[in-house]
């Protein structure tokens, strides 16, 4: 766990405006210089730039154009950056490392242009993972993507949006869910094994072959049954099923889910010796996250880019900005609260911030340093 911060954390804020003579690239460089990220990077550091490449159909993910100056800056500091994300728990365009990397390329993350490869950090089948010890209320061990824990340094770049389970998706979620292997994601989402949908099952047996504990059995009708007591939640069966007939039990209680996310975020930060810089992109702020695979109208105007070494302060500052801007935009707090449920105190997003603060990974108190 990180150390409790004595004074309010600093959050650097650029409102995204530029002039003809002070370009986007120059302003982004100025933001990074202000954070002094160069002082925390060693020459040759393999640096994970954690982003979300956008589910197929999503149009408002962080663009390669926004990232290029950041990657250039990291290289100038001597680091060797690579772009990274992890496989999803559900079958889809990002459910395995091969289609995930191809989708990243399709969405403009071209290693030849960006001079940074795309590495799906938990491997082609989501099994490249590291077990990280953690003494929390919910976990004693967290399962993180192997190539994130193997990196020397990390930059956490998040598209700030709403989220139907967490209230909002920002730096904390990008750490917690975004750096976990499928097993780690399943641990956060569920307290039980997978749920089998017999109407979708084609009886191929692929799940039973990969299950390490014999928790899956063939039912009389050839479909699959789950012996919950034997299941360790490894998620291998979900990844093996060609028919999307197995799904996590998404019915985790809300507050527990958020606390588990907080513990995973803390576990990710615990593996890095040097401070992790977090960047929230408040551009194209949609009510749902980039996993939704659909185009969504934004809830408020573009607000800019924020950076901080404190993910709690950063998410809190981002929420505050969206809150006031969105309300002004929509003309009514009630209307906006329905669009972006992480905003009001006492909601999901609020509990995540408080719990993360309690874990000592950051502070909601912050000062905003405008560029
Ligand atoms: S999650 Fe793992 S242990 Fe549980 S049923 Fe699936 S393969 Fe078996
Ligand atoms: S892998 Fe999927 S389709 Fe095949 S038996 Fe298992 S649940 Fe059914």
List keywords for this structure.
Alpha-Beta Plaits, Rossmann fold, alpha/beta, binds iron/sulfur cluster, 371 residues, 13 helices, two-stranded antiparallel ribbon, eight-stranded mixed beta sheet, disordered N terminus
Describe the structure.
With 371 residues, the protein is α/β, with parallel strands linked by helices. The chain folds into two domains: 9-190 and 253-370, 3-Layer(aba) Sandwich (Rossmann fold); 195-247, Alpha-Beta Plaits (2-Layer Sandwich), CATH 3.30.70. It has helices at residues 24-35, 64-76, 97-106, 111-114, 146-149, 171-176, 182-189, 206-210, 236-240, 254-270, 311-330, 333-339, 348-359; strands spanning 9-14, 46-50, 80-85, 118-120, 129-133, 141-145, 153-159, 161-163, 167-169, 195-196, 216-218, 224-226, 246-247, 277-282, 304-308, 366-370. The strands form five sheets. Strands 4-3-2-7-14-15-1-16 form an eight-stranded mixed β-sheet, with helices on both faces. Strands 5-6 form a two-stranded antiparallel sheet. α1 (24-35) crosses α2. One iron/sulfur cluster binds at residues 196, 201-207, 224, 240-241, 243, 245-246. One iron/sulfur cluster is lined by residues 196, 201-207, 224, 240-241, 243, 245-246.
